[in-house]
Amino acid sequence: MKNFSFKVIKNEGNARIGVINTLHGAIETPVFMPVATRGSIKTMSSIEAKELGTQILLGNTYHLYLKPGDEIIAKLGGLHRFMNWTGPILTDSGGYQVFSLSSVNSKKSLAKIKEDGVEFKSYLDGSKHFFSPQKVIEIQINLGSDIMMPLDVCPSANASKFEIAEAVRLTSEWFVESSKIYKKIKRPKGVLFAIVQGGTHKDLRKQSFLDLAKHNPGGFAIGGVANAGESKSKQQKALQATIPLLPKDKPRYLMGVGEPIDILDAVSCGVDMFDCVLPTRVARNGTVFTFNGRLNLNNAKYKLDNKPIDDNCDCVSCQNYSRAYIRHLINVDEILGIRLTTIHNIRFMIRFMDSIRAAIKKDNFDEFKNNFLLKFNQKF
Amino acid sequence: MKNFSFKVIKNEGNARIGVINTLHGAIETPVFMPVATRGSIKTMSSIEAKELGTQILLGNTYHLYLKPGDEIIAKLGGLHRFMNWTGPILTDSGGYQVFSLSSVNSKKSLAKIKEDGVEFKSYLDGSKHFFSPQKVIEIQINLGSDIMMPLDVCPSANASKFEIAEAVRLTSEWFVESSKIYKKIKRPKGVLFAIVQGGTHKDLRKQSFLDLAKHNPGGFAIGGVANAGESKSKQQKALQATIPLLPKDKPRYLMGVGEPIDILDAVSCGVDMFDCVLPTRVARNGTVFTFNGRLNLNNAKYKLDNKPIDDNCDCVSCQNYSRAYIRHLINVDEILGIRLTTIHNIRFMIRFMDSIRAAIKKDNFDEFKNNFLLKFNQKF
Questions:
Q1: The pLDDT value given to residue A379
Q2: Same domain? B196 vs B336
Q3: Across the interface, which of B42, B77, B336 has its CB nearest the CB of A40?
Q4: I need a labelling partner for A5 at 20 to 30 A (CA). Which of A23, A139, B77, B105 fits?
Q5: Which band of pLDDT confidence, cut at 50, 70 and 90, is reported for residue A224?
Q6: The complex's ipTM?
Q7: Per the CB < 8 Å rule, is B322 touching A82?
Q8: Is position B269 within any domain?
Q9: By three-state DSSP, how is residue A223 classified?
Q10: Which of B334, B338, B343, B346 to mutate to test the interface with A (most CBs of A within 10 A)?
Q11: What tens digit of pLDDT does each residue of A174-219 get?
């Protein structure tokens, strides 16, 4: 059995629908991948994730390596069995977490980048650890990932061009190592993607892509866009500097982007895969998404509101509970409150991606996008 | 439609099985009532509670009065609609919480008992409130309770006989007021129980019962047993001082007791109803119940244990997840961990009560009890 394939089914402009095949089943793209950082989408079971229509989950290499440990998970039969999730799993490289979680109490990342990897302190207990490109592949093999990411250097949002160039150089060198060890592994294994870095600089993005493409990765991830963060124009620039370089016959994965509006923009550029903690994180603060805009359930006006979050939604929350009830639960810190908003937002993301694919199929993605934007930007 | 009835189906010694009928359906007794303090069994939805076989939920008058407020719940259509729970609901009087939650930072309760009710400070913001017997009934009418409890005085575990006698006197006087206002209410309403106080003193228990019985309450609750707390012999003594007084044709409710071993003892004395936060509280600390004993999943020996909590359990947790996985989730503070243990423990309590009823039906309750005790006291 082939461990990975990708096929574009149809284009509308640069936007496209396609199918990815993995060792654990097929995925229709464009796809949103909910994040199960430590083996669970926060508050949710794998059974519930499946019921909501989740096609593929993302697991965090950094967190699972630290606890319970990738070797423990391997002994227990791998991450799929551990979580009781039979669908595909993508694991990240841990690079982003190594850099971002090491800088909690400091503006500068405390991770030490060396030629052969990165030294960092655990966010849990401060203990020292070292990730090399090889180590990160080994961990993901232990987890039994279907789509693996190589260790990369994630420059900060305000890095200089010199720093970004250095990040590109090391990311390329590490990918040579990642590919080498990946090819050596004999057991059934997932596919290895490459991560294109280079910030908003066209020349660096091109350099990064050319370095990586030599090794024929299964797909390309676009790095350093989510952490461009606050500035939308930077995000756009980074995306536009990268997408035209990428081959049409491989999936394109925009890491860390999950704001519906950003997803629409990226899909129209030709991106196929997304992940982000945003929909679940805002859910835990009481913000829920609908096709008519977003609601903050903490707002006092929902106190006596017997309507569901969204009349048109088929999720357990909307079929059974009112805004007033969920508002109350969040207000008194009852876990069920943030469970119900999380379930709703994940179901929204699934339905949102379903609608995007349906629109591309019918050649009316642009219309769908414009209509969606008109409504979604309102808060009500 | 009659708002309440009770029928004993069969006896085995003093133990008995029966059926309670309420405005929201029938309940087979002996029954365990999971506690949905603030409108949710902690971590769990009403849909899940139903799937687990829950027959009746308990809601806390004190908590719901403070937040979101009983008037808000009334405007939203009552507690059943608010929670989307179509089965029966019992609400407590709030008395126990008034006395116990007012003493958080002090050994003595800060609640001020007056002749016409009790003044207390909110555990949420320190604001002053007053519960009279009338007020407590009005709140429960607003909630739409099927089984209501009257305001009572709950003496502390180490109260003197004089203090307990005073508690009995006021509880009786307050019940006169509770009955008066209860009878005046014209709309469909749940039944009103009475609460027998009197500590471990036979004479005081008798006095309490005689005072209350005059008003012909729908059932009798046995108060002041759970807060006798640590001492099993005190619990036993209080129970044995009360049960022989109670009429056979009315349900008997032992408030705040949920330890399986205590339930067995009480069932053999003839108790029909139980509630307690114990099974859900210990679940959140990683302790789970099985018919072969209890497990603490925090124990390192479960790190590589791919077995479910209980091979013989049909709950979502046991059908899908391993001890090692749940242990990991609790270890890293993932909410799903305590959800899975809560689901299991509630399902255990339901199955435990099912087994008790089945045993009484077959006249082998004593045998069941002895076998259960042999195994349940082991930890493994």
A1: 60
A2: no
A3: B336
A4: A139
A5: confident
A6: 0.97
A7: yes
A8: yes
A9: coil
A10: B334
A11: 999 999 999 999 988 999 999 999 999 999 999 999 999 999 999 9
Q: How far is A71 from chain B (nearest CA, A)?
A: 11
| Domain C-terminal end among B276, B298, B329 | B276
**3-class SS at B190?**
coil
Instruction: Clarify whether residues A169 and A151 are in a common domain.
Output: yes
Residue A78, exposed/middle/buried by CB under 10 A (0-12, 13-18, 19+)?
middle
Q: Is the confidence at residue A228, as pLDDT, over 70?
A: no
Non-local CB neighbours of B8 within 8 Å, separated by 6+ positions: B16, B17, B18, B248, B249
C-beta separation of B147 from B25 below 8 A: no
CB proximity list for A245: less than 8 A, separation 6 or greater: A196, A205, A206, A209
Say if residue A1's pLDDT is above 80. Answer: no
Query: In what helix (H) or strand (E) does residue A272 lie, and over which residues does it extend?
Result: none
Using a pLDDT cut of 90, give the percent of chain B over it. 87
Q: Which residues is A220 bridged to in the sheet?
A: A194, A252
Chain A interface residues (partner B, CB cutoff 8 A): 38-40, 42-47, 63, 67-68, 72, 75-77, 81-84, 303-304, 306, 316, 320-322, 324-325, 328-329, 331-332, 334-336, 338-340
Across A161-165, B47-51, B87-91, B156-160, least confident range: B156-160
Which residues, other chains included, contact A318 with Cβ-Cβ below 8 Å and sequence gap of 6+? A308, A309, A310, A311, A344
pLDDT at A269 over 90: yes
Same domain membership, residue A38 and residue A173? yes
If we measure between CA atoms, which residue out of A48, A24, A15, A35 comes closest to residue A339? A48
**A260/A302 same-domain check:** no
Residues B148, B37: one domain?
yes
CA A109 to chain centre: 22
Token pair in block for residue A209: 């892509």
Tokens of B344: 């299991």
Q: Which of B45-49, B108-112, B195-199 has the lowest mean pLDDT?
A: B108-112
Residue in B with minimal Cα distance to A69: B328
Contact between residue B302 and residue B62 where contact means Cβ atoms under 8 Å apart: no
Do B248 and B368 reside in the same domain of the chain?
Answer: no
Is A277:A294 a contact under the CB 8 Å cutoff?
A: no
pLDDT digits (tens, 9 = 90+) for B223-242: 987 765 557 888 889 999 99
Helix or strand (DSSP H, E) at B309: none
Q: Which has more pLDDT, A33 or A123?
A: A33
Q: What values do phi and psi take at B273, rounded to 5?
A: -135, 145
Number of domains in chain B: 2
Closest CB to B47 among A68, A320, A331 = A320
**What is the model's pLDDT at position A106?**
55
Cβ distance A28 to A357 under 8 Å?
Answer: yes
Task: Note if the bond before A188 is cis, omega within 30 degrees.
Answer: no
Q: Whose CA is closest to A200, among A229, A242, A230, A169?
A: A242
- Active site includes A249? no
The amino acid at residue B234 is K
Do B194 and B321 lie in one domain? The reply is no
pLDDT in tens, B50-105: 999 999 999 999 999 999 999 999 999 999 999 999 999 999 999 889 988 765 55
pLDDT at A346 over 70: yes
Residue B350 domain boundaries: 283-376
Do residues B116 and B223 both lie within one domain?
yes
What does the pLDDT look like over B30-42, one tens digit per residue? 999 999 999 999 9
- In chain A, residues with a C-beta closer than 8 Å to the C-beta of B332 are 38, 63, 67
The CATH number of the domain where A215 resides is what?
Answer: 3.20.20.105
Distance from CA of B321 to the nearest CA of A (A): 7
